[in-house]
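re: that chain from earlier
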Amino acid sequence: MVEFNKSAAGRVIRKLRKERKLSQEVLSGFAVIARSHLAMIENGDKQPNFETIWRIANALDIPPHELVLLIEYESQNDIK
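^ sequence. v structure.
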């Protein structure tokens, strides 16, 4: 069983955001969340709920399940 790893979630979201050359301001606007909330998620200080994951995935133009899989993969690599 893989536990939710908020640090891994933050790393994945930051990486995807930077690959798309988006600022936190722009991504948070697309996701309709506060920029400070996104910053806390990316820093691993805040655990995003499912709705927030869904919004961020849509803002990154990927299916939510793909974002969850990337976070799961990152979490598994973080443990090893």
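The chain has five helices and no strands.
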